[in-house]
Amino acid sequence: MRRARTAFVALVLLLPFVAGGAGAMMGSGVLHPMRRSLAPEQIQQAGKSMARVSAKRDDFEVRAPDGVVLRGWKARPPESNGDWVQLYHGVSDNRAGMTGYAEFLLRNGYSVLLMDARAHGASDGAMATYGWLERNDTRAIAQALFATENVHCFFLLGESMGASIALQSAAVESRVMGVVAESAFANLREVSFDYAGLHLSSFLGRTLFRPASAMAMGAAEKEGGFKADDVSPEKAVAARAFAVLLICGTRDRNVPARHTQRIFQAAIGPKEMWLVNGAGHTGALGTHPREFERRVVDFFGKIHGSKP
After folding, report:
1. What span, in angstroms and rounded, lies between the C-alpha atoms of 281 and 294?
2. Which residues on neighbouring strands pair with residue 182, listed in sequence order?
3. Model confidence over 271-293: pLDDT tens digits?
4. Could you tell me the domains of the chain?
């Protein structure tokens, strides 16, 4: 019994050091997620999706302020209401992951931008910064869009990493009139506790496995040139009064609902929150497709109707 107790105590004492070593190795990986190239079958499936709503699709390229080339598609419905929605995919995904969202928006008269985030898909970029650099990418994209299109309202819709980028983008791009954000994190450091806790408990990430979070964030901050606390949708919604529809599944273990609730509390603009019963990470459209479409279209529609 004494040996077992001693072994257990030794294991508990060693775990933080092991976690710290793992975090140090993971730090660089935070900024360099696996790149999922745009595959021919994805392009084909996107084409079929556009065809179902008789949409026209064109390639679209924009150069970011630091010279990175961002690539994506413009898609227009046969009868447009004049509004544009930029769609933001999650980490290690690409623009094709957002075609389901694009399809229902196009069906309702919205033109859409499906862009590959920097360091994702066909876009250039050495690293992903979860909003720190990407918010200025949005400004460049908006500038290019408004220079070539007659835009009535400009909206953003994002999932997971994309939701977090969209919220941070709206804080610095004044032409954004509303954001739909599902499974956004409150800030990068806060969500690191969930990942360090192995999606079981943020408490583990804050305590026993805290060295993993600290080492990973420290490495990411050094390479990325930012502070993890400043990569923050929570701060973004408190910096500018734009409308938000915040969505999170009650079974989201990747980015639990407390993140969405914190963002909602911090928001100073018009705000709505939908906690989706039974949905996992970014699962609202899959589990409640009709309600998701209705809520998003109603949210954008109210803003459209209020603009002269």
Report:
1. 20
2. 159, 247
3. 999 999 999 999 999 999 999 99
4. 1-31+192-224 (no CATH), 36-187+231-306 (3.40.50.1820)
